[in-house]
C-alpha cells in the first residue's frame, strides 16, 4: 500500500496503484511517503469512498457503511465500487478520526502513533484492517517543481534584475523550522501550514506557549 500526503489539506491517501501514486506525486503536488504496509491478494474487501465537499477519502470493509454513505451523504465509491485492497494477516491497522479537520480519518500500523494522536485532537477507533507485513519507515518526499518560463517583452535599458519567481510552496517539517524561517505562527491557508504543525487543530500552527 503506497502512502501519500497532501500538505494543502492534511489528507493521507493509500493506494495499490503505482500509476495513481506516480500521477499524484509527479503532477499534483502530493508527497510520497513510501510503502505503509503490504496487503494480501485475497481477504476481506476494502472499499474507498470520496467526498468532494470534504476533500476526504474513507476506507471501509463495511458494505452497509458504503451503501449508506453513497446513497444518503454525498460520498462516491472509487474504483467503480470494487475493492481497492484486501485486509488480512496478523498486523493490525488502527484508525483515528479528527472532527476538527473536516472529519479526516487516518490509518496507521504504528502503535506509538496511535497512542499519541489522541493528545492532538484525534479519536481512537480501534483496529479496522490487517496487513501481512509492515512497510518501510515513513519518509515524505516531493517531486521537484519545473520552473515556468514566460515570454518577456523587451524593455529599454537599463533595467533592474528580475527576481526569480518562486513556484514552490514552502514545507516546514516541524515548528523549529517555522520559527527559524521567522514565519511563526502560521495560520490555516498560509503557505507552509500543515496539520502536522497544528497538533491541537485550532487553525494556528507553531504558536508560542506560556513556557517558551
From TrEMBL:
Listed transmembrane segments: none
Native source species: Streptococcus zhangguiae
Protein name per the record: Calcium-binding protein
Record region (Disordered): 189-212
Excalibur calcium-binding domain ranges (all copies): 171-207
Pfam family, one: Excalibur
InterPro entries: DUF5648 (IPR043708), Excalibur_Ca-bd_domain (IPR008613)
